[in-house]
Known about the structure:
The protein is built from ten helices and 18 strands. Strand 2 (9-15) and strand 3 (18-23) form a beta hairpin. 12% of the residues are buried. The protein is elongated. It has helices at 61-64, 125-130, 211-215, 220-236, 241-246, 249-261, 263-266, 282-324, 326-343, 355-369, and strands at 2-5, 9-15, 18-23, 26-29, 36-42, 67-72, 76-82, 85-90, 93-98, 104-110, 134-139, 143-149, 152-157, 160-165, 171-177, 181-191, 197-208, 268-279.
Amino acid sequence: MIATIKDYERGILLKHGNYIRCLHPGRHFFNPLGGYRVIHMNITQPFVVPGMDLNIFTSDKNLLSELMIVDLKDYQIAIRYEDGVFAGVLPPGRHAFWNILKEQKIMVVDIRQPEVSADIDPSIIKNIQREGYLIEYHVKDYETGLLYYNNKLVKMLAAGTYYFWRGPASVEVITIDMRQQQIDMAGQEIMTQDKVALRLNFICHYKIKDAVKVIKIKDYEKQIYILLQLILREYVGTQRFDQLLENKQEIGDFVLERLREKSDSYGIEFMGAGLKDIILPGEIKNILYTVLMAEKQAQANVIMRREETASTRSLLNTAKLMDENKTLYRLKEMEYLEKICNRIGNISLTGGGGLLEQLNALLASQLNNR
C-alpha cells in the first residue's frame, strides 16, 4: 500500500484502527495485509479526526510539536487569529489546530465578566456578534443607561454602543429619556369652594435629573399625574368661582411650587406648569354671557350720554358766539343757504327782484319775527 502525502497535508497512520504515528509529505509504503489505513489531514483546517478523541493523539510529541491545543472551561471562549486575521470564536471545550503554514494565535476570554474589554479590537466586534456570542445595546445622546447584571444595578452608562458577552450572567440595559417632557391634563373636573364644577386643561413640563431614583418608582409618569391632580384640587377647592377667574394666572405658580417640594424624592426637575383653559358648565356660561352683555350695554349708554352732552355744549357755545357777533351769524346763514341750494333742483320766484334778494328778504322777515 502506497500513501502519498502532499505539502499541505499530514497523514494519520492507523493500524487496525489504532493510532501509530503522523506522516509528513512524501510517499510512504506499507504492507497491504498489515491492516494499515492513512487519514489525510489538511493542515489549513482544524485538527479533527472523525470518530476519534483528541486525547488519543496527545501522547505523540512529534505530532504535538505541530499542533496548538486549546483547553477552554465552561466560562471561557477564545478568539482565534490566523496570521493576525480574525478566524473565529471557539466555544468551551478542547480544540486543536495545525500551527505550520499559518501562525495561530488565541485570546482567551472569561465570560463571567460580561462587559467586552478594551483589549478586543473593535473591528472584529461585528464578526463575533454574527456568531452569536455578543449582546448589543444602544444609549442615545438624550438618554442615560442603567446596566444590570443578574437583576442588580451595576452602573450608569453614558451615550454610546455597548457589547456584552452571552455568558452565565444575565445582562440588561434600561434606558431613561432625559429630555424635557410634558404632562397634559385634559378636561379635569374640579369643584370650587362655592360648588361650581369646572373642567380644567393643565400642562406641566419636567425632566429627569436622577435616573436611579426614577427607575425605582413604579409608573412614575402616572404618579406625577396623580400628584398634579391632588395639588389642583387642593387649590381650586379653596377658591370661589369669581376668585378663580380673577386669579387664574396664580394657579400655575402655586402648582409649580408644590411640585418642586417633591422634586428630590422623585428625582425629577419640574420646569413649569400652567393653566391652558377653563371650561365652564353651560348654565354658568349663559349667566356670564348675560352679565357681560349688560356690562357692555351700560358702558355703551355712558358713552352715548357723554357724546350727547358734548354735542349740546358745542351747540350752546355756537349760539352764544352768533348772538355776540352778527357777522358770524350772517356767515352761518350763507353756509346754510349754500347747503339748501346744493340740495334743491328747481327754484320758482314770484314778484320782482332776483333770487338772492328774495332769499335775503325771506331770511330778514323771519329774523324780525323772532
